[in-house]
């Protein structure tokens, strides 16, 4: 790509989209268009020098406007959140199919060179995730399909759109299946936050209020892997520009499996506190276990996400702690915008 090629990022008012915009700006790209349906004042990050537009990308006409002159399109826009959100709001999750449907068609018609779609590990067959000690998921495990209801099926269908736009129409598409992403500028409160941010917030809250207790969703034996945001943005760039990965879904996550109970212990050690644990067995807990098999990404890119969880969590904890203090001081913070 030339540094003055126009890059469009959809969902740029959110966590990963906003971070991706900053990533490309820092790499020296001079023409970036950031689009999100949230009013600009509610974006998590706004990068100076970037065109920032408020548009609903589930609308066909808006997609046509958004992609004009773009060389590359990154679709990070979706109505989503952690388990608490995707288990309760399946219709909202399914409706994100409209975003990809219209955006990829508009991109194709506008002659966009490459199109990126942010899929998810929730696209995998849930039957393979019933044990905390599950084997890691490899790309072929999405079929036979039995994805997470709502959110996961939307991801699978949108992946297929990308594959067929390549097969039938020759457009270069890229598809990454993200495994839980965490880091600064992510949602940390309000109902859409994911486990790492929620646990950091709960530990910070417990320290601040002196209530030395933490509520954990489920029995805490559920296992996951967590990828730091800087690995995610770098991985998106690598996958998008790998000619051997066109229209090929690929895991983007770490293979460092950890139980939620151990994640709590890790955050407690960062916060320098030990809390009494209360397990809420009625709360959403998601699948029992999920990990990323990174054999394919290592083979294709000679790389895999590699920020150690402790290191990434330390940075995230500090950022959330500052957000927490700012909110207490009456300042506006990221989660206020939800
Ligand atoms: P996010 O909620 O922080 O960001 C998504 C953004 O999309 C939001 O700002 C939202 O306003 C915007 N959006 C929603 N509907 C829109 C529409 N119709 N038009 C324009 N913008 C719209 O989420 P995120 O964590 O940044 O996730 C980005 C992408 O990565 C999503 O596709 C998500 O499904 C995928 N993903 C994320 C994770 C994770 O752990 N964060 C894991 C797997 C997949």
Strand content: 15-25%
> Mean of the pLDDT scores?
95
**CATH topology-level name of the largest domain:** Rossmann fold
- Give the biggest sheet: 7 strands, parallel
Q: How many strands appear in the DSSP assignment?
A: 13
Q: In terms of structural class, how would the helical and strand content be classed?
A: alpha/beta
Radius of gyration: 19 Å
Number of alpha- plus pi-helical segments: 11
Task: Find the CATH superfamily of the largest domain.
Answer: NAD(P)-binding Rossmann-like Domain
Strand order of the largest sheet: 3-2-1-4-5-6-11
Counting structural domains, the number is 2
Give the helices and strands, then pairings:
Blueprint: E1 6-10, H1 15-26, E2 32-36, E3 51-54, H2 60-67, E4 70-75, H3 83-86, H4 90-95, H5 97-109, E5 114-120, H6 151-169, E6 172-178, E7 181-182, H7 195-209, E8 213-217, E9 223-225, E10 227-228, H8 229-240, E11 250-252, E12 257-259, H9 260-271, E13 276-280, H10 295-301, H11 309-328
Parallel strand pairs: 1-2, 1-4, 2-3, 4-5, 5-6, 6-11, 7-10, 8-13
Antiparallel strand pairs: 9-12
Could you explain the architecture of this structure?
The protein starts with 5 loop residues before the first strand and ends in a 10-residue tail after the last helix. It has a seven-stranded parallel β-sheet, sandwiched between helices. Strands 7-10 form a two-stranded parallel ribbon. The protein has a two-stranded parallel ribbon with strand order 8-13. The chain has two domains: 204 residues, NAD(P)-binding Rossmann-like Domain (Rossmann fold, 3-Layer(aba) Sandwich); 95 residues, Alpha-Beta Complex (UDP-galactose 4-epimerase, domain 1), CATH 3.90.25. α1 crosses α8, α2 crosses α5 and α7 packs across α11. It is an alpha/beta fold and 338 residues long. The chain contains eleven helices and 13 strands. Helices cover 38% and strands 17% of the residues. It binds nicotinamide-adenine-dinucleotide. The site of nicotinamide-adenine-dinucleotide has 26 residues, from α1 and β5.
